[in-house]
Amino acid sequence: MKAMAHKERIKFFFVIPGILWVLIFTIFPLLYSLRLSFFQARLGQDQTFIGMGNFQGAFSDYRFWNSLSITVFFVVVSVSLTVLLGLGLALLFNRPRRGLRFFRSSFVLPIFTAPIALGYLGLTIFHEDVGAVNVALRMLGVVNPPGWFHQVWAARLAITLVDVWQWTSFCFLVLLAGLQNLPEELYEAAQLDTSSGWGIFRHITLPLLAPVLFTVTILRLVETLKVLDIPFSMTSGGPGAATQTYSFYVYLVGLRNFNAGYASALAYILLLIMLFISSFFFNRLRAIYD
Amino acid sequence: MDKRVVTLVGLIALLSTMWFGGAAPTHQAGPVRATAAPTILGFPAATELEAKTAQAAFNAADKGKPDPAWKGKKFTIAVYSAGQRGAISGPLYFWRNKFTELTGATYDIVEIPFAELREKIYSDFTTSAYKYDVIINCSNWYGDAIANDWIQPIDKYFNEPRMPKWDRASIAPAVANLMKWGEHWYGTNNDHDAQVLYYRRDILSDPKWQAQFKQEMGRDMPVAMDTWEDVLEIAKFFNRKDWNGDGKPDNGISLHLKVGGQGFFHFMALSAPYVVTPYLGQPPTKVTKYHNVYWFDPETMEPLINSPGHVRALETLIALSKAGSPAMWGWSLGEAWADFLSGKSVLVFSWGDVGSLAEDPTQSKIAGKLGARGIPGTKQPYDLEKKQFLNLSKPNMVGNQVGCSWHPVLSKFAKNPDLAYYFMAWQATPPINHWNVYMGWTGVDPGTTYDWFPPAGKATIDEYVAGGYKADDAKSFIGAFTDNFYRYPIFQNYIRIPGTPEMMEVWDVHLSEAVTGQVSPKEALDRTYQDWQKIIDNIGRAKLLKLYQQSIGYTK
Question: How is residue B408 annotated by DSSP?
């Protein structure tokens, strides 16, 4: 009995480091930044309680709305493209073919590249004078190729494409694993009823793959909502603030301009947006399972 | 061992390597230690001439009396990242062995990318880490450093026998003021930033092009380029013409305004003569509510940044942008310089680095063809008092000290402050500072009497030729800087109050919005005005007003 009690106690001992880790590095910063969001807290100034002032300030700050709208564009385009391309590639490679292993390995390489490095790579690829993209476009007869760094929509597209290039392989990998786990028997049975590949995909593959698709989509959503490195290194948020994403703006406010109170409020608004989106998706996922 | 286990361990190792390798910062922010690079006379020099001239400077420099107790000590310097032969950071590497030879001590150099430099240094102080003993400081950070009590005055060392003596009186007053706050010195002499206009001397003096200009424009080419309007006309004339004979159309002017690429500094220099007007009594440099002001109303702290003068200057900048490569709004500083240095544009206005780089055969095709003059003026400045544009017979010329004028300051928390100051003072001694100036690769720009040619100073052409300059290029380049610092009647004042970097950041964004056609020049500057008002209110208007008045010497 005593040995049992000791055994019970010791298991808590082993959990303590984990609990401390979470308390120090997750819970404390979370609570501290929540507190900061209600204060005017700038470098070198005394902190002053201002209630909801920072949150109210955000809604009247045109740079807040600008960065939010850019992020929405980025999220919609990037998530759609990565998931669709990833799905397409997964379907393509979900059958025996030569060199499959090589292609699978090659496709995942971009995931392991630091986004900031990819941003600098993007800088050279999309360079308006000597970048590979514009050189190729000129060879194809385009007289005035896009100004990737000084035209608003071209710049937005450029950072999106770099992100798509990095994360398509992630979607491909997860969706391929999902496809390979689908039961063969269903396909064999379906092939007795129809020869339409589209019909099989629509009525069998897609519904069965839906949970995986939802998971991939939500992971991508959360990731793209936080994007900072690529616009930081590639366009510095320009031209103007045309590629200044939400996280980029929070970074500028908090770490460049040291306005910690306002930056915390902005970060909490992003957290709320993410929670809302995640809840929506998880509810939908639950509905599918039910 | 089970094959699957081996595979799993291998996979984990591979992923860890890739993950941590990929997640590692792209720039080394830790100290860069001395390496066993080949040296000449103890210097990591590129040529024997470089080493010999450096040795002569070393011999001539005052060395004070290094304290034997410093032997084996070390301190840390934070500087923006440009590498061992790069601008501003390069001299730190170059002189390190000699510092050890003198003192028995050494220093670590922490290079930080420009985009992260301020936040890294500010974070170091605010988190009480105090890793850096000496900071190679941008002059517009003073407001924050002083307000937060991060750096210490250095006056107490001036008469210390241990310390090398440097010549404060030789520094151009405009730059010397940037090393001081109130009555105290905080920085030692190093770099002297200002912007001047560079041009292709061979092209503008070519009778063929002058005749063609007259034929097309109906008047003589205004080669003196006293006004921005003249510059615009010349840039337009040469733009899209194959004036360098490579069979392709070339550019009139080279500009840049990519966000974060320091383009706003260039607008600062361009716009000064449109906004800053002299006091009509004596002295003309007297700061009043309406004269010799550029940034704020010195009585209310209301930003002047959207004044009609600023708006017209921005319109001029946009007009100039149409006389160059269409891609240049996506360029950073280096790309704009490269366009000029590779012989593809006739004009560029920027810092002294262009003058030095023009002589570097690895980067330039225009050595021996360089012309330079002080920043042009305008005959139509805006009078803040009369609230109208003037129509002058002579252009309004305004000197500038635009840029950072990078120089060392001593942290209040330095572990070995005496040793650190010794280094700062030793680097500021005239022979070493002048060597850094005439060796172009160092990025140290001229600004002291020993950099100027007689009668303004005592430098010789031979010194610059030894540094790799063509004699005529050096005359023109140094002449332009001398004009800027000593011959312009008035000066644009320098902003260095707390919050300056934040104001520059939003200004940079709004200028980019204007030049890329997202908003009109007026709207861009109105946005800047609104943002600056918010920043001022946020930091405290009364506090900033007092500091601003002190920093520009305004008294009622």
Answer: E
Q: How far apart are CA A58 and CA A66, in angstroms?
A: 11
| Counts for chain A of helices (H) and strands (E), in that order | 14, 2
Q: Tell me the CA distances in angstroms from A237 to A158, B25, B88, B258, B505, one per residue in order.
A: 12, 20, 27, 9, 11
- SS percent in chain B: helix, strand, coil, step 5: 45, 10, 40
Range A173-204 burial, b when 16+ CB lie within 10 A, else e:
bbbbebbeeeeeeeeeebeeeeeeeeebeeeb
- Contact residues on chain B for A237, CB-CB shorter than 8 A: 259-260, 509
Residue A259's contacts (CB-CB under 8 Å, 6 or more residues apart) are A41, A42, A43, A253, B502, B538
Instruction: Give the DSSP letter of residue B464.
Output: H
Strand bridging mode B345-350 / B184-185: unpaired
Q: Is residue B35 pLDDT above 80, yes or no? A: no
Q: B interface mutation test: which of A124, A232, A236, A251 has the most B CBs within 10 A?
A: A236
Structure-derived torsion over alpha carbons of residues B222, B224, B228, B233, reported in degrees to the nearest 10: 20
* Tokens encoding B531: 């943002």
Rounded to 5°, angle at Cα A193 from A191 and A198: 65
How many residue pairs from chains A and B have C-beta atoms closer than 8 A?
Answer: 104
Q: Which two tokens stand for residue B4?
A: 């699957």
pLDDT of B4 above 60: no
- Does residue A168 carry a pLDDT above 80? yes
- Chain A residues touching B147 at Cβ < 8 A: 44
Q: Residue B136: helix, strand or coil by DSSP? A: strand
Contact residues for B268 (Cβ-Cβ < 8 A; gap 6+) = B400, B402, B492
pLDDT in tens, B83-123: 999 899 999 999 999 999 999 999 999 999 887 899 899 99
CA angle B512, B516, B518 (to 5 degrees): 90
Q: Of 3.40.190.10, 1.10.340.30, 3.20.20.70, 3.90.226.10, which CATH number belongs to B31-192+404-451?
A: 3.40.190.10
Calpha distance B300→B310 (Å, rounded): 19
The DSSP element (H or E) to which B184 belongs, if any, is strand B184-185
Strand partners, A42: A259
Q: Pick the closest to residue B346 from B251, B209, B258 (CA basis).
A: B251
Q: Which of A120-124, A285-289, B324-328, B547-551 has the lowest mean pLDDT?
A: A285-289
∠ CA B318-B319-B320, nearest 5°, is 90
Q: ipTM value, please give it.
A: 0.86
Please check whether residue A66 touches B, CB under 8 A.
no
Domain A55-289: state its class. mainly alpha
Q: Taking the domains of chain A in order of start, what are their residue ranges?
A: 55-289
The count of C-alpha atoms lying within 13 angstroms of the C-alpha of A237, restricted to the half-sphere facing its C-beta, is 26
What lies within 8 Å, CB to CB, of B362 at 6+ separation is none
Domain limits of chain B?
Answer: 31-192+404-451, 196-400+490-552
Scanning A185-244 for CB atoms below 8 A from B yields 232-233, 235-242, 244
B196-400+490-552: which CATH architecture? 3-Layer(aba) Sandwich (3.40)
A36: chain B residues, CB-CB within 8 Å:
none
Quick check: B268 and B356 in contact, CB under 8 A?
no
Any idea how long chain A is?
A: 290
| Token pair listed for B370 | 């360089």
**Long-range pairs, B149-153, Cβ under 8 A, ≥24:** B149/B412, B150/B125, B150/B411, B150/B412, B150/B413, B151/B186, B151/B409, B151/B410, B151/B411, B151/B412, B152/B186, B152/B410, B152/B411, B152/B412, B152/B414, B152/B417, B153/B184, B153/B185, B153/B186
- Phi and psi (nearest 5°) for B107? -145, 150
In this complex, do A255 and B119 lie within 8 Å of one another by their Cβ atoms?
Answer: yes
